[in-house]
Amino acid sequence: MKQKHILILGAGIAGLAAAERLKTVMNVTLLEAQNRIGGRIRTFRARSFPLDLGAQVIHGAYGNPLTKLVKKLGIETVPSDYFDYALYDKAGKCVSAAKTAAQEKKFRSILKAISKHSRRIAKNTSLEDAMNLSPLKKEIDPALWNWFKESEEIYSGGDLKKQSARHYDQSNDYPGPNMIFPHGYDQILNAFNLEGISMQFNCAVRRISWAKSGVCAETDRGMFDADYALITLPLGVLKDGQIRFSPQLPGWKLAAIKRLDMGVLNLIHMRFSKVFWPQNHNFIGVAGQDNPFTRFADRSRIQNIPVLTGITGGDDAVKLESLSDEAIAGLAVKALRVGLGHQVPQPVEVEVTRWARDPYTRGSYSFIPKGASWADYNTLARPVAGRLFFAGEATHARHPCTVHGAYLSGLREARRFKASRGKELL
Description:
Layout: E1 5-9, H1 13-22, E2 27-31, E3 43-44, E4 51-52, E5 57-58, H2 65-73, E6 78-79, E7 85-88, H3 97-116, H4 127-132, H5 142-156, E8 179-180, E9 198-200, E10 205-211, E11 214-219, E12 222-226, E13 228-231, H6 235-240, E14 244-246, H7 251-259, E15 261-263, E16 265-271, E17 283-286, E18 295-298, H8 300-303, E19 307-313, H9 315-320, H10 325-340, E20 349-352, E21 365-367, H11 375-381, E22 388-390, H12 403-420
Helix pairs in contact: 1-12, 7-11
């Protein structure tokens, strides 16, 4: 029997996982629009130290499949606690740990109550509207309330006024600490043996034609025919309509793509001539200011380099993308000076991300806006006519928005094909 042929669109971790597993039972051609593998795993290595521009952490180390890959490769990782921060107010005074802990406990209790009673919440209610209804809000300092909100938007990539209250926090994270890579997240890509796979780089797909007889991908480098196509492209690319399908995708698939949304998290890595900040915590926060940068990660503690990373999410992150690197650095330094004083110098070097403008991602990771639901992730994962298959973080309902969710989705699709034992998947 002639071996089947599959096109895999996208060399992110979902595509790589599927390709490695499928190459023993099918002919695999991997079409990647960029000149590298990894997708949203992107480590900048042009300097003497690595800087992760995309994926940052392993979310929950215990039982996480990425932990197994890390141990197999002997990659160094260190724990990073998102809640380990020193918070400064607009007067430059450090807010006491006791106050921030007490205030954040109340903030978190509001979110827990929303999650617990989510089935009672109307479908089109935003997370922000639901939070504003809580009587506990009056007990939280307004400046801290806004800072906690902004931290949530950084974590999710979407503004709280857009996020669904009904479907807030229903994913299943792995237990244990979050882990980061002192020497770059892209090391994990060495786990994949790509020998025997036809790798086509700088090969952006423009159209996918599909029929009972197979599929055809029209790319910048010509036409590729196969029996199946596995589409692992980011949700943002599917929403952007860059790829045309002929015939058009079914209405149920298009509706799920439209309902789900793509969040944005952007970073500015700033290298200074020396460390001038207290190195007691993983993060430095600045509350009560009108600035898109309210949280900074201290890289000096894990990489021994004088680097602070400004983090911004949601609509603020998108708006910044139209500014120059210098203007963005100016805003970040201004925020630091509010908290740490006017002695904060200008950075020696900066590296800025713009994930919403990136034509190969159109965002950082998915989130559920009001009006959508977790079921949309499952719908996005459903095959079409036994010819088109889908993987990526936005197709994994248990672990969306994560690298391990993307990885698991690739393994899921590989299992689907292997279980067919060469039979048509119609």
